């Protein structure tokens, strides 16, 4: 399995286990010490319904971004650091609710591009 595909599966599993649904489409690119992961089709039917109002959209955005950040702060997913050969230092994540598009930038201690 290619490194990108294996990384995608780790990210997909975390999101599925956390929110009950993983992204429908996911793509990761490794650059220097970063893994940049783009995800489409993230929301559950309930989240889509809640996001129908301005307040709901903000609530879904805040819940998705803060939950993911807190999750990775508490525990790096099994296999992620081993796969990359480096320790995860930071995670930056955001989601554009109206487009159901999310992006996460995983910053590792050292270059993870090779391999």
Overview of this protein structure:
By secondary structure, this protein is α+β, with helices and mostly antiparallel strands. The protein is built from four helices and four strands. The protein has a four-stranded antiparallel β-sheet with strand order 1-2-4-3. A hairpin with a 2-residue loop joins strand 1 (25-31) and strand 2 (34-40). The longest helix has 21 residues, at 54-74. The radius of gyration is 14 Å and the shape is elongated. The model has no long low-confidence stretch (mean pLDDT 95).
How many H/I helical runs?
A: 4
Major beta-sheet overview: 4 strands, antiparallel
Distance between the termini: 12 Å
Q: Could you tell me the mean pLDDT?
A: 95
Q: Shape from CA axes?
A: elongated
Radius of gyration (Å) = 14 Å
From N to C, what is the helix and strand string?
A: HEEHHHEE
Strand content: 25-35%
Helix content: 40-55%
Structural class, by secondary structure, is alpha+beta
Low-confidence stretches: none
Strand order of the largest sheet: 1-2-4-3
Q: Tell me the number of strands.
A: 4
């Amino acid at each position: 399995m290619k490194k990108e595909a294996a990384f995608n599966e780790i990210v997909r599993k975390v999101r599925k286990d956390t929110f009950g649904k993983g992204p429908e489409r996911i793509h990761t690119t490794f650059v220097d010490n970063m893994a940049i992961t783009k995800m489409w089709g993230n929301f559950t039917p309930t989240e889509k319904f809640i996001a129908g109002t301005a307040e709901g959209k903000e609530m879904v955005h805040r819940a998705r971004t803060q939950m993911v950040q807190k999750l990775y702060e508490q525990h790096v997913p099994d296999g992620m650091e081993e796969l990359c050969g480096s320790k995860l230092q930071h995670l930056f994540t955001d989601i554009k609710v109206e487009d159901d598009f999310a992006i996460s930038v995983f910053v590792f201690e050292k270059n993870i591009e090779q391999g």
